[in-house]
Every structure is written in C-alpha cells, then in structure tokens.
Amino acid sequence: MITDNQTNFVWFSALLKEKYSAEFGRIIEILTRHHINFDFLKETKDIWCRDYMPVQLSKKEFVQFRYEPSYLKTEKELLSRSDPKLVNEANGIHVENSLINLDGGNIVRYQNKAMITARVYKENRDTGLTEAEIRDQISKDLHAEVIIIPEHRGDEIDHADGYVRFLDDKTILVNELANEYKYWVKGMNQLRDRYGFKFVEIPWFTPKKKKNPLSALGIYINFLEVGNLILLPKFEIEGNRDEDALKKFIELYPGKTIEQVNINDIAEEGGLLNCISWNIKSPNNGLKTSK
Description:
three-stranded mixed sheet; L-arginine/glycine Amidinotransferase, Chain A; 24% strand; single chain; 10 helices
C-alpha cells in the first residue's frame, strides 16, 4: 500500500470549503505554503471523504470498500451518505470493488500492514462470512497483513484512526493509556506482545465542554501526513495538551515539518484532519492547485 509519507496530493470534499470556510482556509494556507497540491471531490454528500474513498495500493491501483456504516440510521443521515460509485465516476477514479463493508477511517495502514477495529465484524454480518473469512478477504483486498484491534464499545463510530497510527513497521502511536478503558488497554497489550510492537503514547484530553457527544476535541492522533508535512490538530481550549502534543511530534518526526491547525468546529462534528482528507500519490506529482 501507499503510505502517507509517500503521498503528494490531497483531495477534500467540495462541501468542506462551503460549510467550514474558516477552518478550510487555515488548512489550505498551510498546504499552499508548503507547495502541497489539492483539489475538490465532486458528487460528495458529506465532508468525511476518508471514509467513502478507496485505499491506494499503488500509483494506479485502488480498492474500494462498501460504504454502508451502521451508525447512519435516520433518514436524514442516510440522505447524507456519499455514494462511492458516483464519487469515483465523477472524479475519474478507477477502482477494484470489495464485497467488504469498511470505512476508510477504520483502516490505519503502513506498507504491508493494516490496523482495523473489531467493529468490522459487526459491519459485515450481512456477508455471511466468519470473522476469519472477513480478515482474509480484507487481507487479499489490501495485499496486507490485517491486525484487528479491540473495539471501543461506547464509540458509535469506532474508527481506528482515532486511536492508533503507525510510526514504523514495529512502532504504534496510541492515545495515552492511563485514562483508557481497562479492557481496551488489556486487548492492546495482548496485540503488542503478539506482534512485538512498541507503543508510543500520544497526549490527549477530554474537554470540559463539548457540543456533540461524537466530538473529536482533544484527539491529536487524527492528524494528516502528506509527504514531509504533518498537519496536527490544535485545540486552544481549557485543558488542552497542544504544547505537549507538538513537542511529542517534533521528537517522533525529526525530519518532518509539523504545523498545528485549529479546526474545532469540524472536530465538534466528530472528525479531524485524517477524516476530512484523502491523500494519495499522484502519478504526475499532483494536479494544478485548486483555488
């Protein structure tokens, strides 16, 4: 699979600049300053393009999973669900389709490995496949070893990109474990021992005030990495760990440029920088930057 540090181009839903112009402006200022090209996806119905866009395996090879998340239940929510087929066709993206129902935000990848939460089993009951068969099919689709991490039982969405990221083949970034659920920590420690991983804990905090139960305020691990640039959330609210997070990322990525950006209005809706972006390795080093 193409890893984030190999990407050179970022796509966003065209709705993002319409609904969150101030936050989007902050992001684009940083990308433009660092000469990262970007464009806007047509035919999207929500801003969370990571979830309904395909996974890039090579420069010209993409695999598209079904996007039928169980957390979109009401008529209004279902009307806001983007159709990957329409989006891909409208934007000239050619894909191989998978029978597996899996959001892109629940795939944290690095070369020949992918971490996915156990929620994927519930999302694929309609396939009639066993858990082992589900894992095997995803492994075939991604050409990668699939590592299932514990489900957060109280998280309605439960995407892996809110909890873990690869630093390298054997090093996993995890949200600080002290305030995590004990069952989740136990499950992660079992994975660490099984695969020989090293955990590096990333600061996080629970805001005293938030507008939405699904709010992602306080989660730094949902960052965007494109090439040599990392866009890191900055919250600037009471109890924040902004400085701690920045210091940690400077320590972990000594050769990278780290830029912090406040997108709190977006975060209140349940996602952050990885959620609203789809970064790829473009064959021609990116297209002309959109305005």
